[in-house]
Structures are given as structure tokens and as C-alpha cells.
């Protein structure tokens, strides 16, 4: 919902923290979001309760929060400790608040209940109304921790990050949360059908039409007459990799062509090929080819 204060800048203002965020409309009529928060100067006051809505927030903390005092609907939970890397779950409709007695650095995933309903409908199983969690108590969730860590570098330049990548990551988070904490399970293993030849061609055309990846996954899925979740599964079945992985390979191939012209700078190539910056380009190129762009260029022009 657009007036939520449980993600984005409004979330940061409510907790008096620096915020950077991404939002996704990969699911119809729902906003999925992820927000990085940095709170450096404890004020030793209670946090402001969130606006009432039917949604959940899952926070991955990167700093020790030694004495975590937490309330839901005004009722105190046992005092606990948030350990670096652990996850804690909040039910927004229960008005969670906590004592701002410690600095923190965290990444919070926002999922409205409507998104969980959509995921359940897509899997053809009963809808999810609640998530299983213990108020005020953190736990280890390796998947969410790895997702949060992968997103950290992207928060430094959010305007340059591919929307396809964010849509894909948020869908993955949604499926993980629904299955791990909401009991989402299929009665039988789903039959995964690939895309038709025409659908595959159209999807690839849309992906490469803008290497920055600004097109939304939902728009590509709509062109193929599928839901975003089913499109992602079908694309992988047909092409052998997820849409955002395929897009990265196209960026690398385009970069190789540009690297053969030694008058084009690495910074220019990075932006032309849709990378956040030269550093992001270098990391992605090295991961794909085993060498830096500069070294690859020297070898290609030798």
C-alpha cells in the first residue's frame, strides 16, 4: 500500500534512521519492498508504532542489539538479544514497538498479507493468514541473511539497479517466507511447463530492449500471459536460467563488444551495459569471465 510506513523513506523517518530501499510490483495489487536502515545515535525512547495495515516485516540485523525490549499491542515480550546475522519477524497489524536503546544496521523485507495470498493462489493451496514466529525473539535464517548481504552493495546506488533483479529477488523472498513461516506447500510436485517459442522470443526481446533492466518482471510476464511466478519458472525451464541471470549474460556480451574499442572507458561501458557503476561492472565481469575487464581488453586487443 502506498501510505505504508513499514518500508522506504517513511520507515526510516518513523525510526529516525537513514533509509535506502527498493520496491517491487512483481505481484498484482501488492508492493513487496526491502529497506536498509542505519541508526547510529540511540535516543533511548520507544519507537513510533507503524500505521495499521495487514503486513509483515522480516528484519535481518548486522549489529549486536544486546538488550532488545519489544512490545506488541502494548504487551511486552521477554527481553532478548539480537545477534548479528539473525532475523526477527514483525506483524505490523499488532503495532510492534521497541526501545531505541542501541545503534543498529539492518535490512527489512516487507510483505503485505495480500502478497502471501497471491503466492498461495498461484500454488493452488489454502491462503496464508499468519506467519509463525515468536514475538521479540530472533533466529537464524540463512536464506534471508544471504539475500540481505547480497543487497547491501546495491543500496549505495538504488537508481541504477535493475528492476528485473529486484523483482526476481523479492519473489524469491516471498516464496521463502510463505513456505518457511506460512506453511505454504503444494499437495504434489508442480508440473513446470516451459515457454512457447514465441513467448521465449518475446521475453528475450523485452529484456534486451533496455540492458539497465528497468522493465518490470510483471510486464514481461503479462506479455506472455502468465503470472510473474509462473513466468520465472517457465523461463528457467526453457532457457536454463532465471531471467535476471540471462540478462546479466547479455550485458557481459555487450560489454565484450565495447571493450574491443579502446577509446571507450570502462566507466562508459558500465553505464551503457546497465551496471550500477564501474565497480559493479568489474565484479560481474570477473565473476563471468575469470578476469577483470581491463585484462580482458588487453588480451582481446593484443
From TrEMBL:
Question: Which GO molecular-function terms appear in the entry?
Answer: DNA-binding transcription factor activity; sequence-specific DNA binding
Note the Pfam families from the entry. HTH_18
Record-linked InterPro entries? AraC_XylS_family_regulators, Homeodomain-like_sf, HTH_AraC, HTH_AraC-typ_CS, Tscrpt_reg_AraC-type_HTH
DNA-binding is among the record's keywords: yes
- Could you list this entry's UniProt keywords, alphabetically sorted: DNA-binding, Transcription, Transcription regulation
Every copy of the HTH araC/xylS-type domain together lies at 201-299
Q: Which SMART domains does this UniProt record tie to the protein?
A: HTH_ARAC
Q: Which PANTHER family match?
A: HTH-TYPE TRANSCRIPTIONAL ACTIVATOR RHAS-RELATED (PTHR46796), TRANSCRIPTIONAL REGULATORY PROTEIN (PTHR46796:SF14)
Q: This chain belongs to which protein, by name? A: Transcriptional regulator
* Organism (species): Mycolicibacterium sphagni
Amino acid at each position: 500500500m502506498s501510505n505504508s510506513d513499514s518500508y522506504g523513506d517513511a520507515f526510516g523517518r518513523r525510526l529516525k534512521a537513514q533509509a535506502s530501499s527498493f520496491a517491487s510490483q512483481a505481484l498484482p495489487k501488492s508492493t513487496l519492498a526491502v529497506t536498509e536502515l542505519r541508526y547510529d545515535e540511540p535516543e533511548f525512547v520507544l519507537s513510533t508504532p507503524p500505521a495499521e495495515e495487514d503486513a509483515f516485516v522480516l528484519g535481518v540485523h548486522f549489529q549486536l542489539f544486546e538488550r532488545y525490549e519489544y512490545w506488541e499491542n502494548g504487551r511486552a515480550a521477554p527481553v532478548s538479544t539480537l545477534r548479528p546475522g539473525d532475523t526477527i519477524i514483525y506483524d505490523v497489524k499488532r503495532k510492534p514497538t521497541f526501545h531505541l536503546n542501541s545503534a543498529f544496521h539492518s535490512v527489512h523485507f516487507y510483505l503485505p498479507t495480500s502478497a502471501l495470498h497471491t503466492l498461495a493462489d498461484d500454488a493452488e493451496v489454502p491462503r496464508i493468514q499468519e506467519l509463525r514466529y515468536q514475538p521479540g525473539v530472533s533466529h537464524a535464517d540463512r536464506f534471508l541473511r544471504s539475500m540481505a548481504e547480497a543487497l547491501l552493495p546495491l543500496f549505495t546506488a538504488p537508481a541504477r539497479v535493475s528492476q528485473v533483479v529486484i523483482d526476481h529477488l523479492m519473489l524469491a523472498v516471498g516464496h521463502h517466507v510463505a513456505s518457511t513461516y506460512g506453511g505454504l506447500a503444494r499437495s504434489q510436485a508442480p508440473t513446470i511447463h516451459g515457454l512457447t517459442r514465441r513467448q521465449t522470443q518475446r521475453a528475450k526481446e523485452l529484456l534486451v530492449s533496455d540492458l539497465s533492466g528497468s522493465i518490470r518482471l510483471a510486464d514481461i510476464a503479462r506479455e506472455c500471459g502468465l503470472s510473474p511466478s509462473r513466468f520465472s519458472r517457465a523461463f528457467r525451464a526453457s532457457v536454463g536460467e532465471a531471467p535476471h541471470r540471462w540478462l546479466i549474460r547479455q550485458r557481459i556480451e555487450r560489454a565484450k563488444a565495447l571493450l574491443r574499442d579502446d577509446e571507450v572507458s570502462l566507466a562508459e561501458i558500465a553505464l551503457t551495459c546497465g551496471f550500477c557503476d564501474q565497480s559493479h561492472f568489474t565484479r560481474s565481469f570477473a565473476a563471468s569471465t575469470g578476469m577483470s575487464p581491463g585484462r580482458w581488453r588487453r588480451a582481446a586487443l593484443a
